[in-house]
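Students often ask what a holo structure prediction actually looks like on paper. The answer is less mysterious than it sounds. You provide the chain, you provide the ligand, and the output is a string of C-alpha cells encoding the 3D arrangement of the protein together with zinc ion.
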Amino acid sequence: MGGGRAFLDILCSGSGSKTGVSGNLTNSFNQFPLYSWSTMVITHETGHNLGSSHTQNCGWPGGAIDNCYPTEGGCAQGPAPVGGGTMMSYCHLTGYGINFAKGFGPLPGYLIRSRVRNSTCINPVVNFETTLQTVMEENATVENGCFDYALVTAKIKINYTPSQPATVTLLPTIPDGLEIGPDKDIEISPVNFIIDSTNLSQTISFKVYNDALTEGTESLLINFNLDANGGNAVKRNTNNSHTINITETDHGPYETPGQPLFQESFDSISNGLGNWEQTVVYGTTSPNRWIVGYSADPFFAGKSAYISNDGGTYAYAGYTASDSSIVRLVSPVINASGFTSLHLSYLYKCVGEYTFVQGGGTGQGENIVGKDYGKLLYSIDNGSNWILLKDNISGRYSSQLEDIALPAAANNSSSLRIAFEWRNNDSVVNNPPY
Ligand SMILES: [Zn+2]
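The corresponding C-alpha cells follow.
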C-alpha cells in the first residue's frame, strides 16, 4: 500500500472507526526535523483522526492553505508554501517538500488542539449548559420588599468526575452602570463552588432586581476560572461563557425612597381652587366652602386651603341650620403607577368641636349631629369610592404636620385622589374650622 488512509475526526467515536492506515513504512527514518515518509504518514493520518482535513481543502478559513495539490472542493489554490509545506499537505509530492519544523501549521494545529481540548473522552470538561438568557426586569415576580426580583438560573457542569475536586470561580464582565450585589441590579450566587463527584452540576442563581429605573438593555457576560488543584478537569472551549441580557421596557416614574409624588403648597393657585375640586356632599345652601387663599391665620402666612363662609378669611359664623354641611376638598388625580409605600404628609390646623354637641341637620341623609370636625379620605378609583384615612380631626389649635402611611391598596394606583372633608352642624362655632 503506497500511502495512508484514516477516518476523519474520530477522537471520541466508537472503537471501530478509531483507525488510520499508513503504508510503505520502513524501519529507517531521519531524525526529526528532517523529513522521512514513515514519520510523515503516521503523523498525517493521526491528524485526520484528530479532525484535520488536508491543507488543500477548501473548508479552511480563507480557503485552501497551499498550492501543493489540486484543491478539495473546487476553490482556488492557496499560496505557495514559503519554506516548505505542513504536515497535512501533499507538499512532499512537490519541490516545496514538507518542513517538519512547521508541524501542522497554524490552522490545522489550532483545530487539532481544539478538538483534543473539547474531547470529553480525554478529560472531563467544565462548561455552561447554555450561553444566553434574556430576562425582563419588569417581570420581577419574587416579592422582596422594595426590591422585587426575577430569578433566573444557569448551570455549570462537568461530564464526569474529575480526578481532583475543581474550584470554579465566576468572572463577570460588568458593563457600565450595572451593579452587582444584593438589592443592586443583579445578585449572583454562588460565585465560587467546587465541582466534584458529589456536585457534577452547579446551579447558579441570578436575582435580577427591578429597580424601576428606566435603562437600556444591559448585558452581563460571565466567564469562569477553573482551579483543578492538579486534577484533570479542563475548561471546555465551547459554552465557556454565559450572557444574561437584562431588558427594561417599562417606563414608569422613578421610585426612590422619599421621593415626592405630588406636592401642593397652594401658593401658586391664583384662581379658585386651581385643579383641586370641591364636592358638596351635603348642604347645598350652606355658605361653608373650601377656598384657597390667605386665611389670615398666623400659622399659615402663605396661601392655604381652608373653610370660609364668605369667601374671605377663615373666620365664619354658623348660627343657622342651613350652615350644616359636608364639603370635601378633592385633590387632582395622582398617578402613583410604579410607586409603593405611599405616605401622605400635610400641614393643618382644625379646631371645630371636640366635645359632642347636639346640632342640626338630623335626618339629612348624612345625619350631621354631634361635632364639627374634619376627615381625611383617599380614593383609588378617581373619586368614585372613598376610603377613610383619618376621622374626628378637631381640637388642633396650632398647625401640625401629620404623616400617614397609605394602605397598600393605594400602591401603583393611577387614579389616586385624596380629600379633606369638613363636616359641621350648626351648633357651636370654633374658628378656624379646618
Ligand atoms: Zn491525508
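The chain has a mean pLDDT of 83.
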